[in-house]
Structure formats: C-alpha cells, structure tokens
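Below is how a single chain appears once it has passed through the pipeline. First comes the sequence as given, then the structure the pipeline wrote out for it. We keep one example in the README because the format questions we get most often are answered faster by looking than by reading.
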Amino acid sequence: MAVGTRADVGLIAHLMRRAAFGASRDEIHELAEQGYDAALERLMNPPDEGWPETYLARRFHYEQSGMLTPQGGPAHWLYRMITTSAPLREKMALFWHGIFATGYPKVIHGKALSDQIRMFRRYGTGRFDALLLELAKDPAMIVWLDNQDNHKGAINENWGRELLELFSMGVGSYSEEDIKECARAFTGWTLGNTEYMILRSMRDSDWPYGRISWHFEYNAEDHDEGEKTFLGHTGSLDGEDIIRIIAEQEATARFIARHMYHFFVADEPPVPSWPYTPPRDPEAIDTLAQAYFDSDHDIGAMLTTLFNSDFFKAEDIRYQKVKSPAELVTGILRLTGEFDRPRREILDRYLQTNFMGQMLTNPPSVEGWHQGVEWIDTGSLIERINFASEQLGDADKPGVSAMIENILAQNAASPQALLDACLDQMGAISVSQETREALMRVSSSVESLADRVTHLLRLIASTHEFQRA
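Resulting structure:
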C-alpha cells in the first residue's frame, strides 16, 4: 500500500491524540501506510499484550506490590499508560474513572481502587449492562457510596441516587421514588472477606486482612424481596433487574453518548449543566445513541461509530480539546522513552501530574473532574509548560535524542523546513501561522543547529497546539 498522504498523516495523528496518548512520527507514518481503517482496528482490537511489565514494576517498587498506599496504584497505572501497546484500553479506563469517580480519602484502600481500574480495563468497551453490574459489585464503589450501609428496612440512597444521576441517566430522567426503589433493590449487596475466616466483628478492620481481602458479597437475609416499582416496571426487582431496566432507557443511551462526545470529540459543559444546556452537536448524540441500541448497548460499537464519523474527522475540532494532566504527561513520556523499564522516577512523574490538577484515584468529588479549559489556570498552566519543555528539551532522554538525530539527518534546507521536521517528529503536529511565526522568531536567535533543534522541541512543547489534542 502506498505511503499515506499528508492529509492521511494528519488524520492518523488526530486519531492517535484522541483515541490514544499521541504517537511518535514513525508510529504515525506506519499507521498511515496501513490506512485509517487498519489503524482504528488496531486500536479497537489490539493483540493480547500480556504486559509482563506488571511483574517487573511490582518487583521493582514495593508500593506497587501491595498497592495499599495512595501513590502506589496510580503510579503503577501511569507506568502502564506510558508503556502499553493497547492505549485505547487505558484511555477507556481513564474515561470511566472520570465518570464513575471513586477516591482514596473515603475508600482508604489503594488496592481496591487499583482493582476498580482493572475492572474498567476489562469491561470498558463491552456491553454497558455488564459494566454497570461489575460497578455495582465493586468493593471500592460499595464503600465510596455506602452500599454496605444499605439494609432491608433501613435503606441508604447514596448508591441508588448516583447510579441514576451521574452514572447512567442524568437528572430529570427519574423520580425520587425511583431512587428509593433502586436503593431497596440493592439491599444486601455488600462486602465480604470470609475466605480468611476472620471474625465477623473484624470484617471492616484495616489489619491484618480486613481491607486487603475486600470482595463483593450478596447477603440474602438483608435483601428486600418486596414488590418494587422502578421506571414503570413492577415486581420483586433486584439489582440486576434495575441495571437491565436502566440500560434499556433512551436517557441512558444519550447520557453515555454525550460523555463519549465530550471526552473524544469536543468539550461539553460540566454534567450538572446538561439538563439545561443542549448538546453541542445534537445530531452526533443521536448517531451515538442509535449505535448504542443497534449494538445491544455495546460501548465498543459506539466507539467505532464515533471514530468513523464525519464529526470526529472534521478538521475544525482538531487541537480544540485541552489534554488532561494524565493525557499530557503520558503522551510526553511515551515520546521521551524515559521509562524503557521500571524506574523510581515514575513516582515523581505521578506527583507532577498531581501538581497540574489531576490526582488519579482521587477525583475532587463524585462528579469527577470538570475538564476542558477548566484544566487550565495560572498555576497549572505553568506546571504543564515547564514539565513539557523540560522533558522534551532533555537530549539525554533516548526518545528525545532519537528525534534530534532524525531531524539533523534530514539536512533541512531552510528554517521553515527545520521547523516542519521538528513538528513531524513530535507527532505530526500542525500549528497556526501565528504559532509558526512565533516559533521561527524565537528560535532564530540560536546559532548552533543542534541547539536550535533542541530549543524548537522545547518551544513546540509549550504551544497551544501541543497542550491540546
């Protein structure tokens, strides 16, 4: 197959920024040769990577072995995002983590949170029904929304309310009575750790085994078997019935479609505004919602529809989404090649992500993070630019060194050609004429060619376009 045209390269680069964490020049051009359909297929159905790095990382870092601390699990996840050959799988875990936001300060159990991310990785592109069922049984979520305190005759509505409001349908699609009936249906869905045969009075203790061995347990004696009416359905409904009914709702399809559009295509306002603010592109939401029903609620089918759509491929949405700190840091570190093996510095990089405003497994509230331009304020912007320019201006890092060698080998005939070579090496980036002129003006003061290349890489990393996807 012929080498892809410049337009093909630009579209592939756009796909990799949104569906992955960006890509190197060689990866993008290789995918362009194969064509867009093949590139998307590789993202959607990657070969089973096995990822032996799990064992290397956990042997190298004691915190990533037990994953009990606030830092161990998310640092391990960051390392996986940097090194994985299945980036869309990690991107979807990040997508669901932002919706089903669960945090350490209340759960106080790093391993349970890491287990939840693994669950997102496993079920994140399958049927939405299955994902919700796993979420309802997830120990971190049970504790986060107090379902261990949801008892027959004494319901706790936290899980039922957020399941409907923030996880599936959105405000205005149900009644307060539906919330109560939902809570009744999930009574008895709790935690257990009886395989260690510890005393029941120690079930919720921190040590020695209480939290380490958390798992889902159904307590039939504590489940309300009475008749319930939920969203017009009446019977002795249990949690699985509730999830089946939720997944069949038009409101659910449109809610998930809007989240997907917001994450992969263009920024929407924060979720609390959705009942009062129409979607940015109603036809796109219609298309994605139809894909949800046509595929029997399959998230992977919705993604395929989205990535093949004209609204995703349109040039006017490129470089319009502000990268989240996790996306920015991961994309940069995949370029620099710093983590060719487990290194202690992964904890430093994770902390730098925190300084930019995103602490993985510790969202600010049950709403998750407000994204888009809300990632940017005076402090976080300085952190982002300093991190990007420092990392991509460090010629001692193998990926940066390779980029510099490749650029110099092209013997660029003009300053403009040199800039184009730098932009290509950093992920086939396109910049505005205003940005080009600024880059040329600042870099022209550097006399040494090698130094000018390094300087350009640092400058490009701080541009509006590089900081966005």
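Strands lie at 189-192, 215-218, 228-230, 233-235.

See the next section for the split statistics.
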